[in-house]
Specification:
Length: 329
């Protein structure tokens, strides 16, 4: 099983200089480069202290400069917010500067505040996402881009540089909803699975994706399907649960959104308190031994071949690195 880190850039305490958020992350990338991690996956968000990383490609360049072997993933490039040609250029340039270490994850986004600020109608998000991905792949694999679609039209534009990896960096689509899973499978794309689904939902979605792939004539064999999980590790189960509770409260308040950034009617939590739902159904937390056991059991149940871990604290990252990874082999 490959293990990567899903890197958020949370700015919970506004008295802390924002530059320290990035420096801490870059120090973490150096540690990851020297240990057993496959990749860092950078999360793009806008207009919120939940994660102050509006440019995963710029941060990816810094990550590449601080590392030599670690792959640089985007989780995700929020495709509807870009001109497709500019997006193709930026990711290709990152692939060149990193020596061919890019994993490109693309997604449509969902936070209404982001779409409103960028002046993009939310009802256009899926169509813009699909068309942008199509154009980016054309830009990487064609000498000149010719395209006539609903939102974009190009007549023989040469997009440079081309990626180092041939024919292009490996590609994943973020897919948390059933329509997104079905679209990705119909196109033969591998998917990234989100950190907010319950374990039961993640299992159901993974099986549905495999069924849809087969129905579309594609094979499930040999695909890395990163599954994101929020993870808290500490010396005792109680300490780990307290870390997880603080993050669950922060997540519900700022990401799920009391002000409706995510449509609450789609997240009933089975009638449970959202924080308790995250603690019991979504997050992995406990001692190093317990966390390793939980990961192993989940992997066996779902056939997980790629864990995208999102450590909930600096201590969680250190213990995950020093004590959990050796137990996972």
């Amino acid at each position: 099983m490959k293990i990567g880190i899903l890197q958020f850039f949370g700015w919970r305490d506004r008295s802390v200089p924002i530059a320290s958020i990035y420096e801490s992350a870059l120090e973490r990338f150096g540690i990851m480069d020297r240990t057993g991690y496959d990749a860092v996956w950078l999360a793009e968000h806008h207009f919120s202290g939940f994660s102050v990383c509006p440019s995963v490609h710029m941060l990816g360049t810094m990550a590449a400069a601080r590392t030599t072997r670690l792959r640089i993933g985007t989780a995700v490039s929020l495709a509807p917010f870009y001109n497709p040609l500019r997006l193709a250029e930026e990711v290709a340039l990152l692939d060149v500067l990193s020596g061919g270490r890019v994993n490109w994850g693309a997604g449509r986004g969902f936070e209404r505040s982001e779409f409103a600020a960028f002046g993009i109608p939310g009802e256009e998000s899926a169509a813009r996402f699909h068309e942008t991905v199509e154009i980016v792949l054309k830009a990487w694999t064609s000498d000149r881009v010719r395209h006539k679609g609903r939102f974009f039209e190009y007549d023989g534009v040469e997009v440079l540089p081309k990626p180092v990896q041939s024919p292009h960096p490996p590609v994943w689509m973020a897919a948390s909803s059933t329509p997104a899973i079905e679209w990705a499978a119909s196109q033969g794309y591998s998917i990234l699975m989100d950190p907010h689904s319950s374990r039961g939902d993640l299992i159901r979605k993974r099986r549905h994706y495999g069924d849809c792939l087969a129905a579309a004539g594609f094979s499930d064999d040999g695909r890395d399907i990163p599954m994101a999980r929020l993870i808290a590790v500490d010396e005792t189960a109680d300490k780990a649960r307290e870390v997880a509770r603080r993050v669950a409260e922060w997540t519900v308040a700022s990401y799920v959104g009391k002000e409706g950034n995510v449509r609450q009617e789609t997240r009933s939590y089975g009638g449970r308190d959202p924080v308790d739902h995250y603690l019991d159904e979504v997050m992995i937390h406990g001692t190093a031994e317990s966390v390793a056991d939980q990961i192993g059991a989940f992997s066996a149940e779902i056939g997980m071949n790629y864990l995208m871990a999102a450590p909930m604290s600096g201590r969680s990252f250190r213990l995950l690195t020093d004590r959990v990874l050796p137990l996972l082999g």
